[in-house]
Design brief:
It is a single chain. By secondary structure, the chain is an alpha+beta fold. The protein folds into two domains: 2-113, no CATH class; 125-217 and 297-341, 3-Layer(bab) Sandwich (minor pseudopilin epsh fold). It is built from twelve helices and six strands. The chain has a three-stranded antiparallel sheet. Strands 5-4-6 form a three-stranded antiparallel sheet. It is globular. The chain starts with a strand and ends in a 12-residue tail after the last helix. This is 37S ribosomal protein Mrp1p, mitochondrial. One of its GO terms (cellular component) is ribosome. Residues 154-210, 286-341 form the Manganese/iron superoxide dismutase C-terminal domain.
Amino acid sequence: MNRVGLRLGGCFPVASLIQRRAVSYTLPSIKTLDNNKTTNTDFQGLFSSKTVDELWYKRGTHLVEGLNQLLEENNVSNRPSDLNQLIQQTFNKPDLFGVYAYASLLHNLQFYMESLKPNTTAEASQNVKQCGPEELLKTPLIADVYNNEPTDPALRDWISNSFGSVAEFRTLLLNSAKGIKGDGTVWLVAQAFYSEKTVKNEKNQYTTLAVMNTYNAGIVNDSIRSGQVTKLQQQKQAKADFLKRKQLERQNAETEGKVEEVIEEEEGVEETKNESKTDDLVLGTVEEAEASALFLDKKLIPLLAIDASPRNYLLDYGVYGKQQYLDNVWDCIDWNVVAERAPVRSKPTIDYI
C-alpha cells in the first residue's frame, strides 16, 4: 500500500489519499476528526459528533466509493496521484463527468475540513443550537467585536491591504457564503496576474487576495476556468467564420448573375452582414469585456474554503441557523493552515516618472 500525496488547489500538500495498486482511493485521515470519532466527542464550537460522522465519514466514504466505482466502470487507467490532475483530465470529457464531479466534491470537502480547528472558548458550545425564524430578520453588519482573528502578521497585512480590514473581510466572506442558495462553497484565494509578455520561467507574483464562490461540484482551478473561456471564444469565432463564409458565397453567387435563391444554412447570416458593416472601433458587449479578462490573465491559489451547503447546518442549527453556523465557522478557522497555504506575497512597486 502506497501513500500518495494529494495536492489541493494545485499547489500545497495538505493530506493524503491512499491509492491501492494504482486503482482505488480511500478517505484521507484528518487527525482532529479521527480523535472526535474515537472519543465520540463533538467538534467543539461547530458540530456535534453526529454531524461530523454524517458530513465527513458517511458522505466522504460515499464520495470515495462513488469515485472508485466510476473509475472502474469507465476503465480509467493511468490515474494520477494528484486529485487536481484527475479533475483537469476529466473536466472536458462529458462521458467522465461523474468522475469529475465526485473528485471535485471530495477535494472541496477535504479542503474545507482541513481548514478548521475546534473552538475551545467557554461559550463555544452554547452557540451550537437550533435557531428560530427571528434569525432571518437580523441585518448584516460589519462586526466591531469578534473572535479568532488571524495572528500571522504577513497574512493580516495582506488581508487588510486587499479588503480594507479584517472586519470587512469577515463580513464579505460570511455574507458571500450566506448568499449561496443550495450547495456551494466560498473561497479565499490568492491571485497572480500576468501578461503574454511574461517570461515562462518567471515565477507568478501573487499580489492580491479575493473572495469567490463556487457551486455544486465547482472547484477553484484557473486552468479549468481559463479553458472554459478559451473554448467559448473559439466556438464563437468558428460560428462567425462560418457565417461570413456563407455570406461571401451568397455575394459571389449574386455577382455571377445567378438568380436562383441561395438557401441559408445557418441562422444569423443577416446579423453577420450588418455586423461586417460596423466600425472596428465600436466597443463590444459587457459579457465580451468580462470574458477578455476572466481567468485568462491570472493564477489562483485557494487558501480557505467554507462549505455553505444546507447539509452543514441543518442537523445542529436548524432551517434558520445558517448565520449562526457561519459565525461559528469563523471562530473555528485554523489561520495557521491558511497561512501555510499562502504563497509568497509580491507587493507592487510604484514607478515614479
